[in-house]
Amino acid sequence: MNSKKQLISLSFSYKSDIFFFVCGMLMFCSEIWKQFTLTFAIGGGSYIWWYFPFQLCSIPMYILLVYPWIRKRTARLTLLAFLMSYCLLGGIAVFADTTGLHYPLKALTVHSYLWHILLIILGISAGFVYARLLRSDQKKTLFSRALAAAFPLRPFIYSTFLYLACCLAAVLLNLSLDRYGTINMFYINPDYKMQQIIFRDFIPVLGNNGAIALYIISTILGALILFLIWKLIFRLRFSCAPRS
Fold first, then answer.
1. Residue 135: per-residue pLDDT
2. Domains contained in the chain, number
3. Could you report how far apart the first and last alpha carbons of the chain are, in Å?
4. What is the CA 172 to chain-centroid distance, rounded?
C-alpha cells in the first residue's frame, strides 16, 4: 500500500501532472459517452467505425493518461513536444474546415468543438511545461550555441517518430477494419480519396497516395513551425529576463 502511495505521490509531483491527467480522464469519459451515443442514438446499435477514436486529435487523450506515470525526462519532453506541436496543430487546423465538427446531434457537435478547443489549451499548456522542464537544468544565457542546447530539437524529432508510428498504426487499422465498415483513421486510408481541403486538390496531379504523402509531410512541417515558434518564444523570454 505504501509503495502505491509513493508511486502516486511521485507521479503527481507537479500541478501540471494533475492537470494533464484530469484532462485526459475527462476526454476519456467524454469519448466513451460519444461512442455510446454514436452507436445507439445514430447507428441504431451498430458500431460506426468511422468514429473509432484513433485520429490525430484523439492521440493526446492517450498521452495525457500515461504522462504522469512516465518519469524519464527524455520521454516526458517527447510527449510534451508532441502536445505543443502536433496536438496544437490539430486543434488549430480543424477550424479551417469545421464541417467535420458537425454531427446529427447538437450535443455531439458541442462536444467536438469543446474537444478541439481543449486541444489548443493543452498544446499551449504543454509548451510552458516544456520550457519549465528545460529551465530547471539550464543556465540562463543569450548565446545562440547555448540556446540550441537549452531548447534542443531532439524531442521534436522523437515526437515526429511517434507521429509516424501513429500514422503506420492508422494505416494498419484502416486496412484491417475496412471489411467491417467505412474507416479512415488519420484520413490516410489508401482505399478512399483524400478528403482534407487543399490536399484533395492535388489528387489529379499526385494521385491519391501522393496526396496522402503530401498531407503527412505537411503535417510534420506545420508541427515543426509551431515548435520553432515555441523556440522563438523561449529565446525572447531569455532576452527579456534580467541577468543574474
1. 79
2. 1
3. 45
4. 19
- pTM for the model: 0.91
Measured CA to CA, the distance from residue 45 to residue 5 in angstroms comes to 41
111: domain range? 2-240
C-alpha cell at 13: 509531483
Cβ contacts of 52 within 8 Å, gap of 6 or more: 173, 177, 183, 185
139-148: long-range contacts, CB 8 A cutoff, minimum separation 24? 140/238, 140/241, 140/243, 140/244, 141/238, 142/238, 142/239, 147/234, 147/235, 147/238
Residue with grid cell 507521429, as numbered in its chain = 163
pLDDT along the chain (244 residues), means of 10: 54 84 98 98 96 97 96 95 98 94 97 98 97 72 52 95 98 95 96 95 97 98 97 78 51
